[in-house]
What does this fold into?
Amino acid sequence: MGPLIKLIVLNVVVYAILKFVVPNVPGSAPLPASLVFLYMMLTTSGFVIFATVSAESKEAFWGPIQRFLTGENIGGLQALRYGVLILFPLLVGWQTYNSTAVSDAPPSENRTIHPAPPGEYTGLSNPISKTPDAIQQGKGFYAAFCSPCHGGNFDGKGPAARGFNPPPANFSDPTTIAMLQESYLFWRIKKGGVGLPIEGMPWKSAMPRWEVELPDEWIWKIIMGEYDGAHQSPRTWE
Amino acid sequence: MKHGLNQIVPNVVVCVWLAMGFLIVQPVSAEEKVAATAQPDSTESSVSVSAPMVKGTLPADDPTAAVWNSATLAKFPMSPQVHWPNRILDATVKDLNVRALHDGTNVSILLEYADPTEDPDDSAAVEFMVGDKKAHFAHGQPMAQVEGGPVNIWYWKNKDDKGVDMNAKGFGTIKVQTHQDVKAKGVYANGTWKVVFTRPLATEHPDEDTQITPGGFINIAFAVWDGKKDASGELKEKGSQKAVTSWWNFRAEAPPNYDGYYYAAIAVGLALGFQFVLIRKLKKGHSA
It folds into this structure.
């Protein structure tokens, strides 16, 4: 097998591994195309260095390329040569056109979903004792005030949720309230969407500022009801 | 000399190979970008309203004109307004279809939605941010940690059938402008409202009116009131009791731009020249 064929086979194998094997390794994820390209470029560079260490291997590697591009009497490859010489400029032109074309996609926004709370809301503990009665009361308040958006099943799919972007939080998702302390929820419920810092994009959130409608005691009970109903526990530092 | 050329040529060939590899991989990465920006939870809904530029007059008085079909349909789900009391937990209108057109001077935005009954108090509104400051989608409600700006609201009500140009900076602060730039016209047929709002892209009041520059994205939100009355004669939806959307994107499309073709032609020329030089050098290297 000529070194050129080896390089092509090697690149195909590397591509197949990165594209189809790596994403299926437990705990892994699909690789971005730019990273796949980088790995293939490294493979190619490494191979070229290896293939050109001696004069003979260099000739074995470059000879066929040189003959393909300039050699005479290459038979059927002649047509392929013209094909490459015509397609290459067209590809360059196509790529240039694509990269200068105006994008139709709106500007992307990187919203921080759980931004840092103000200092006075860190480390507060729930002043209400965790009794079945208090939890039950909290669930009642939740049903009345929160469930229209956050859902009767605590899944963020309430009947009033569908028009809002960002969507209401899904409390049964382990990346929402299970990652947060009770004091964080107290801040978010009390101050609502308009209480978020700039990285949380407060202008987009429909979350009400409940401090104008509900006493603190009810908010603490709602927090208990939410954790209990969503089968999650608040994050603690112990 | 011959020796030096023999070393240069292989390097040049490597560059060509890498360039070709890059060309092949690039379109794949572009596809990934599109997939990443797509909304995960919305198979049906849009993220943006795009207004193409049309020649001739805009259908400002005709929500049923055929030219509307040349605009891409954007679909937005609606929610009852829950952010602030008095809230409402179930609004009549659940989905809104939006199309827009512009002619380089004026912009027309068509809202289309199902409403089972035609009532004198049926109303609809389009909302924008004004200036550079962000504004909360609920009437520009004050935000605790961000200094917000006002919103510009274009309002239409069936019984008046005209556009009203307003500003607000928080619930209860709505103010009709002294200069009215917005026209509106509604047509009801077969259980569907079609309401078209029209305004110049730019106005002389940038502190109160949103300014629309073709090619640029701005924020847009919508509200709809069902003006039906209940058994006691009270309006089902009024004031803050309405169907709303969050902020989405709006863009008046820029006039067609052919620069891409010129750049592509230059790139093809450069690539051809590169090939010509490369093959000449390779042939010289061989024969020498």
In short: Residues 4 and 19 of chain B are 23 Å apart (CA to CA). The longest helix of chain B spans residues 2-37.
